[in-house]
Amino acid sequence: MASTAPKKLVELFYDVVSPYSWFAFEVLCRYKNVWMIDLHLKPVFLGGIMKITGNKPPCENKVIHSRKDVYRMSEYLKVDFKLPSDPSTTMFRKGSLKAMRFVTAVDMIDSSFTENVSRILWSRIHRNDEDITEVASFQLVGKQAGIEPEMLNKAISTITDATIKKRLTDYTEEALEKGAFGAPTIVAHVNGKQEMVFGCDRFPILANILGEKWVGPVPEIPQTKL
Amino acid sequence: MASTAPKKLVELFYDVVSPYSWFAFEVLCRYKNVWMIDLHLKPVFLGGIMKITGNKPPCENKVIHSRKDVYRMSEYLKVDFKLPSDPSTTMFRKGSLKAMRFVTAVDMIDSSFTENVSRILWSRIHRNDEDITEVASFQLVGKQAGIEPEMLNKAISTITDATIKKRLTDYTEEALEKGAFGAPTIVAHVNGKQEMVFGCDRFPILANILGEKWVGPVPEIPQTKL
After folding, report:
1. What is the largest CA-CA distance in chain A?
2. Which of A97, A186, B167, B226, CA to CA, is 20 to 30 A from A4?
3. Prediction pTM value
4. Closest-CA residue of chain A to B179
């Protein structure tokens, strides 16, 4: 018998510049039909979170280790990943501000496309070493996500509008209020309380918080009962 | 039939000031008779690692989150833990330099006591809110660990000797050479290669590296076959 308990809200605050956000996103997308959760994708600007919290870039030994760790985690969490050929230029100099405004514009018009658009942007930057800063790239991403030309043009043309900028800032500030200092920031709403979990390595903890079971990075999707 | 393959060396570089080091230590101590590993405990001085790598203390939001995360991890990894009543005084102002010299002195005389002495020091600072800086504390710890008075007095009286200081420095430098930027730093020796893993949240990754299976924080200990 299917449970009649309401689904628990889980918010994922993410930026496509962050590989660990991608891994958390894919695992949560797999689990959203396994655990009783309502997954709410909330695009933020990681650069803003780092700046406002004063979270400093890591020391050299940590950077060297991260470049190994990110591959190990991608393998463990089964996300096909490859660092961009020039990570610091791609991730820090070019960055993701325009991309996250594009995700926000799509999300505000029709949030059913947010998951696909985000995944395709991640695949571009963190698998295929492709651009995520140009209008031409957003055209390709939108098309690949199945967005109709009219909606896509509207989304792209509003990227620099105040309402889009404001919503991205609002979500970024919301993440900060909930304790973010990086991404992914995951917030589970349970029994009237909000529990923040950071990173893509706390799924057993998140499962405990939700009263659910962590069965590894690729859960079996339960079959729909007819 | 018991495997005749030689055990794989796993080094744990740790400091008793670090709760996450304690959690990694307990999990590895549980697994040392489950996985085919030879666990080598290597006491280091975390303060030195942080200073030399330039690894900065975390921003405020991260500190707030860590104080929650450390309890969640202790619960998940089944280590009975409580933060000291005044964490910054205990962990940063008083620190662990003398304690780690004491562990080193014990380790150099008879390394069979290193595990127990470390565990008791962790229990004092990170469960019972007790001192780990005074000679009287080291007397209690040594006695509780079952060290004979003669050896214990020898260990305590040599804490400030150059050989003890040098060995602590040597292990700390060795950790740095292996890429450490904090603790716990775990180094697995597999097929002539050394693989460094950081933290107490990478056990599935460590298992992969070792070709072993991660079965959660409390594995069943295999029964000795007669």
Report:
1. 55
2. A186
3. 0.94
4. A61
Long-range contacts of B64-68 (CB under 8 A, 24+ apart): B64/A179, B65/A179, B65/A181, B65/A196, B65/A198, B68/A196
pLDDT at position B225, please? 53
Interval B2-15: pLDDT, tens: 556 789 999 999 99
The pLDDT tens digits of the residues spanning A23-33 come to 999 999 999 98
**Omega of the bond prior to A43 within 30 degrees of 0, cis?**
no
Q: For A65, which residue in chain B has the nearest alpha carbon?
A: B179
Place of tokens 């050479």: B177
Provide the number of CB pairs (under 8 Å) joining chain A to chain B: 76
pLDDT band at A57 (very low <50, low <70, confident <90, very high): confident
Interface test with B, best of A13, A52, A61 (most B CBs within 10 A): A61
> Which positions in chain B touch A60 (Cβ < 8 Å)?
53-54
Amino acid at B78: K
A98-147 pLDDT, tens digit per residue, is: 999 999 999 999 999 999 999 999 999 999 999 999 999 999 999 999 99
Q: What angle do CA A117, A57, A44 make, to 5 degrees?
A: 30
- Angle of helix B162-177 relative to helix B46-53, nearest 10 degrees? 50
| Pair B121, B141: CB distance under 8 Å | yes
**H helix intervals, B57-161:** 60-76, 87, 97-109, 114-126, 135-144, 149-157
pLDDT tens figures, A134-187 = 999 999 999 999 999 999 999 999 999 999 999 999 999 999 999 999 999 999
Q: What average pLDDT does the segment A60-74 reach? A: 96
The Cα–Cα gap between A153 and A149 comes to 6
B152 at A interface, C-beta within 8 A = no
Does any CB of chain B come closer than 8 Å to the CB of residue A65?
Answer: yes
In chain B, the domains with their CATH numbers are: 8-210 (3.40.30.10)
User: How many CB atoms neighbour CB B149 within 10 A?
Assistant: 10
- Chain B residue with CA closest to A207: the answer is B76
Distance CA B79, CA A33 (A): 32
The mean pLDDT value for A16-44 works out to 97
- As a whole number of angstroms, the distance between CA A1 and CA B169 comes to 62
ipTM: 0.92
